[in-house]
TrEMBL record:
UniProt EC number: 7.1.1.-
Membrane topology: Multi-pass membrane protein
Keywords tagged on the record: Cell membrane, Membrane, NAD, Quinone, Translocase, Transmembrane, Transmembrane helix, Ubiquinone
PANTHER family: NADH DEHYDROGENASE SUBUNIT 1, NADH-UBIQUINONE OXIDOREDUCTASE CHAIN 1
Keyword Cell membrane attached: yes
Membrane spanning residue stretches: 20-43, 89-109, 129-150, 171-191, 203-222, 260-280, 292-313, 325-346, 358-376
Catalytic activity from the UniProt record: a quinone + NADH + 5 H(+)(in) = a quinol + NAD(+) + 4 H(+)(out)
Keyword Manganese carried by entry: no
NCBIfam families xref list: PRK06076.1-2, PRK06076.1-4
Name used for this protein in its record: NADH-quinone oxidoreductase subunit H
Cross-referenced PROSITE patterns: COMPLEX1_ND1_1, COMPLEX1_ND1_2
Length: 425
């Protein structure tokens, strides 16, 4: 690990690498994600088992490390079964559509600044764009086509309903997720991931923009279809959801890999946009901690902690109902996000433009006070409406119970003293 100071990369540093360096970085990224999926499954099973006072995988290899390798080999070598009625072309294409965008989405994540890779000074990031952050939700939108096609091509009602659920869920939570990025764009003044990491040299956006960070965390579970938002795969009502007709073969392994890669991408974006990216934790301001290959260590630690949080939520929370999922996305996350964006824009206007200071202060105060007030009023009215509806239903139930001729059950009143006397006699 060299201690030679290197400047933070900019957009001008990308696209200048020799072709073989680009290929090397692409292979390194592919291996990181491929092995990450294999050992991520082992880590998740091991962590959840410890939370539940179990051992977890402990037979194949030391600490069960080879269990996921054995499972991957088993799925790759099992017989590939095709149901009789499936559309074979789309049935085979759907898992590929799920996996490829998940690999591509991680290409915008910076692992470190400029490093010395085989004698070439290059940013440890495959690609960066002026609109790089928008590339991640775009790839997530493409991968949902794989889920929908998997459900439709299976010719199964369970699979089709799972695919439709996934489409509606991704549309709902991608809107809220994209809105949570807007505050970051306004504060950083750029959509480049490397530039956003550079701006967080002082304070992470998880602290400065905590509402955006919290909203993104919720949307992260919805986008990756993880518990408590894994509604496309409800066992109780949809069996296996969109993957019901996929046997435990290579196609099923690709589907599981795609889901895990979306979780990895969501964790990597959270680290990049809100947790300082490859920068060392805030107390560690030494120069050597931000040079050479040390930033890879800080990124990996943050990445593992974020993934551990996702696993912890899975082990702790139950699956929500589908109406609760959609209500949270459309009625809570999106309105709160819009109000927060207006507040951030007003504060940004005050900081950048001194001439509009008073307008910005007034607008920010109005939004800060008005948005919670409107939400509380809306919540109160909604609660009263629910209580009135419940009272109406209870009254109707009592009326039908007392009047058998009106459609209720003809159950006579139970005279307990009479029956007790008859029992004693």
């Amino acid at each position: 690990m060299t201690g030679v100071p290197m400047a933070d990369p900019t957009l001008a540093d990308f696209g200048r690498d020799p072709l073989w360096i680009t290929i090397v970085k692409a292979v390194m990224l592919f291996l990181f994600l491929a092995f990450g999926v294999v050992f991520g499954v082992w880590y998740e099973r091991k962590l959840i088992s410890r939370m539940q006072h179990r051992y977890g995988p402990n037979r194949a290899g030391a600490f069960g490390l080879l269990q996921s390798v054995a499972d991957a080999l088993k799925m790759g070598l099992k017989e590939d079964i095709f149901p009789r009625t499936v559309d074979k072309v789309l049935y085979l294409l759907a898992p590929v559509i799920m996996v490829v965008p998940a690999f591509l989405a991680f290409s915008i994540v910076p692992f470190a600044p400029m490093v010395d890779l085989f004698g070439v000074q290059t940013p440890l990031q495959l690609v960066d764009l002026p609109v790089a952050v928008l590339f991640m939700p775009a790839m997530g939108a493409v991968s949902v086509y794989g889920v929908v096609l998997a459900g439709w091509s299976s010719r199964s009602p369970y699979a089709l309903l799972g695919g439709l659920r996934s489409a509606a869920q991704v549309v709902s939570y991608e809107i809220a997720m994209a809105l949570s990025f807007v505050a970051v764009f306004i504060s950083a003044g750029t959509l480049s991931t490397s530039e956003i990491v550079k701006v967080q040299a002082g304070t992470w956006y998880a602290v400065l923009l905590i509402p955006s960070f919290l909203i993104y965390v919720v949307c992260m579970f919805g986008e990756a279809a993880r518990i408590p938002f894994d509604l496309p795969e409800g066992e109780g009502e949809l069996v296996g959801g969109f993957q019901t007709e996929y046997s435990s073969s290579l196609k099923f392994a690709l589907i599981m890999m795609g889901e895990y890669l979306h979780t990895f991408t969501a964790s990597g974006i959270a680290v990049t946009l809100f947790l300082g990216g490859w920068r060392a934790p805030l107390p560690m301001s030494w120069e050597w901690a931000h040079t050479g290959w040390w930033p890879v260590l800080w990124f990996f630690i943050k990445f593992v902690l974020t993934f551990s949080f996702i696993v912890w939520v899975r082990a702790s929370l139950p699956r929500v109902r589908y109406d609760q999922l959609m209500s949270l996305g459309w009625k809570v996350l999106i309105p709160v996000n819009l109000a927060w964006i207006l507040l951030v824009a007003a504060v940004r206007n005050v900081v950048v433009n001194e001439d509009n200071r008073m307008i910005g202060v007034v607008l920010g105060a109005v939004i800060a006070v008005g948005a919670p007030a409107i939400w509380m009023r809306f919540d109160t009215v909604n609660q009263r409406r629910k209580e009135a509806k419940k009272a109406e239903v209870d009254a109707e139930f009592e009326r039908l119970s007392d009047e058998p001729a009106a459609g209720g059950f003809p159950v006579p009143p139970l005279d307990l003293p009479h029956y007790h006397g008859a029992w004693r006699s």
